Amino acid sequence: MSDTIVFESEEQMPHLPMSVGTTLYNKTGSWRYVRPVYRNRTSPCNHVCPAGEDIVDYLGLVKHGQYEAALRRILEENPFPGVCGRVCPHPCESECNRAQLGGAIAIHAVERFLADLPQARQLPRLEASAPSGASVAVIGSGPAGLSCAYQLARRGYEVTVFEAAPHLGGLMRLGIPSYRLPREVLDKEIEAIAALGVEMRTGMRLGDNLRWEDLQQYPAVLVAIGQHVSRRLNVPGEDRQGVLPGLDFLRRVNLGERVSVGPRVAVIGGGNTAMDAARSALRLGAAQVRVLYRRSRHEMPAVADEVQETEQEGIQIEFLTAPVKVLSNGSAVCKLQCVRMRLGAPDESGRRRPEPISGSEFTLEVDTVITALGQETNLDLVADRMECAHGLLVSSNAAEASPLGEGAWRKGLFVAGDAATGYGTVAHAVGSGKRAALAIDRYLRGEALDGFPALGDPVRVAARDVDPTVVRFEDLNLAYFEEETPTLQGQRPAAERVGDFDEVNLGFAPDQAGREAERCFSCGTCNECDTCWLYCPDVCILHRDGSGYEINYDYCKGCGICAQECPRVAITMEEELKWNK
Amino acid sequence: MEQVIMGNHAVSYGVQLSRVHVIAAYPITPQTQIVEMLSEFCADGLLDAKFIKVESEHSAMAAVIGASSAGVRSFTATSGHGLALMHEMLHWAAGARLPIVLANVNRAMGPGWSVWTEQSDSLAQRDTGWLQFYCETNQEVVDTVIQSFKIAETVLMPVMLVLDAFVLSHTQEPVDIPDQEAVDAFLPPYIPKVRLQPGEGHAFGGLVAPDNYMELRYKMQKAMDEAVGVTKQVGAEFGKAFGRNYDVLERYRMDDAEIALVTCSSITSTSRVVVDELRAVGEKVGLVKMRMFRPFPFEAVRQALSGVEKAAIIDRNISFGQGGVFASEIKAALYDSPQQPVVFPFIIGLGGRDVTPESIRGIVRHVQEHDRPEGEIIWREVRR
Known about the structure:
The complex is a heterodimer. Chain A is an alpha/beta fold. Among the domains of chain A are: 135-228 and 377-444, FAD/NAD(P)-binding domain (3-Layer(bba) Sandwich), CATH 3.50.50; 230-374, FAD/NAD(P)-binding domain (3-Layer(bba) Sandwich). Chain A contains 20 helices and 24 strands. In chain A, the strands form eight sheets. Chain A has a five-stranded parallel beta sheet with strand order 5-4-3-6-20, covered by helices on one side. Chain B is α/β, with parallel strands linked by helices. A seven-stranded mixed beta sheet of chain B has the order 3-2-4-5-7-6-12, sandwiched between helices. A six-stranded mixed beta sheet of chain B has the order 9-11-10-13-14-15, sandwiched between helices. A two-stranded antiparallel ribbon of chain B has the order 1-8. In chain B, strand 4 (74-79), helix 4 (80-95) and strand 5 (101-106) form a beta-alpha-beta unit. The interface between A and B is medium-sized, with 17 and 22 residues.
């Protein structure tokens, strides 16, 4: 800098200001008071996935055609992508930021595509963390029980699953019809869990041929018995022949029993069980199926796609209608007396409370009534004098609470799935079972459970270091995105599909899955789009060997253009003082 | 190939024929069609160039500075407020000695908001180190684009060519569009003396201490001095190749002229008509068309006006607190002339107000009726 160049003549003079050497000696990073840091944030899909899947991450892999790696990412968290890709109400899609620019990503269809890859599935094991000889009993082979069994088995625990029914899978098998979830898909996913060495014992009912004494040898027990008790209608005549509780009806249909319905069927309720019962009744040969729901379409708990498919099949949904009395001709049901409803003030659930309109009574001719008003759990066996904390059943009074009647009633009794949370979806149960597995693992290794995520919070096994701030639509740099409409998976035509129990949805071909992944904004997660690299005026953003970027802080002036331009909010500017401490 | 085209498209064809490699521009009325057509040329594969969309004229000039620094032929176009926004970068382009060509469509500055022609936008940039050429016709526009690259790349200074809003930019005229082969022979590919390139560490445009800064400025002025001769030479070469000669200025029916109209841009064509009319009735009136404004062609101006009794300078611009820019510069040039005409400094047609043959006749009558100008500015057609 201090060298003075003296030109002897005009010819020696340069015609433009250009340095002889480089200016690399001038480390302009010292000018910086804020520094860009690659700090991924939480995508709305990841934030709400009840099973704790890292959706944004695996969509990125799908985009690059890395299907098996994408599937492995799901399997870290959820051993049931084939099930969830078909039956999940996909809250991820409800929250998807893409919904505001063309339509939500069809995440469920991509998940299903990955689950259906033809390669034989091998579930990923983890480094064993189980203390030697640690074994766990899981009561119930539904999604919660099997998710827990899977996560424990892959850590080296010996796990035995006890199932009361003759078949494995809980409500996945007994509650969901095969036109939505083909049996072979479920079987394959359960077999993959069994292949990790999980022992599965069917026909073992707690309190019956499975006694608490039998479970004493297990240092930890998970109760994941789900919700199997149908709520009652509470109207006169509901115990007549021809009135069927929805879950019983579906269980018999799904186990392949011969179930007959009359030509005119009324299904009471507005949830997924109601839709499943109505569509199953249609497939069993009913001529006319109606669904009666006491609120309006807006309040229906059933997934919108399911409702649409139900209506496509010719099933009429009578909104704002409630039964008041079941009338019978001798012993058999012949009529259903109903009343029209209107919506009043919101109730404790936040939905507007339906109120009967006096004088609006009318009668429907029916042969079969199926009730689908929701279900409850029966925790009599364990919980009448127990309470639940951190998903761990704890006794308020250990001596009294013991079903064994002994003072030394065990610790280490955990609960998960619908029995604990009542959310009623496979994805929630998978998440809850996984959470129980992580809690049991801690417990058996003698670690405290304080600070463990609350019941109902999704947990992740393969967590990335991600800022918990959720990226919202308005946070994105919309200059980089155009409106693009979603790709829909094919469906068999309604007239054809109502004749059998074969699958309705036909799934994605690779190019369709790729197109959906391509539309993903990758909210909060760097997907190496090179925008920062392109914009950095100081050429300080460098491609790192392998993946991602590194910043040359020797020269980065902290101008913030990279963070400002990042389409997906994956760079934050942090005060330099914090880093210099 | 003769086509009837507007001035804006004459610019686009000139750029295409010059085989420009990078174009960065931001649209602004009345320039938009220039870059629209160029972007279509790029999209359709008719021009092998990178078209860079930018968010402002400042960025447009910054982008072509980058491209030109990397050693490729670069072009941009703008108008009025867009040119004003480029101001800082105009200095940079000149100081970095980059042979960028810019087409500016003259537009009056707001407020009052205006999209019509006036020279104040380009004349306000006269001290930035850019050559300036003012075009009379659409033919001159296409020819000047091609010559501009040759001149710029010879003297290593940027060139601004200027055309009137609407009167040229949007008006269709028959134009002979040169053949590509002939243009290629006239304008060879640009070979930079130095350029940015990966692997060679140099800082361009860095800090220059007082020890050396002045020498860089001296070199720039030397290049401007050289540009006068280069422009004459390139104009003559162009004449040989294409049959249309160009010089730094043009003298029209100036032999034995007692009164000279000094004009530039499209007012020249209007004035030619009036000069022909007056000559037909025996009045000794001629015309000097200013083509080059920067560098200022002192010698040519002195020669052209030597022997004339009166010179009527027609300015479609105003430097507030001073007057017409051409008049003030021509008066300065004549200070050293042994034969000084009486200079009548007219201002007319601001904000695109029509300058008609009757306007020019009025100016000639005014000059004939007065021995000396009555002030520093002679306002024409102002309603007061």
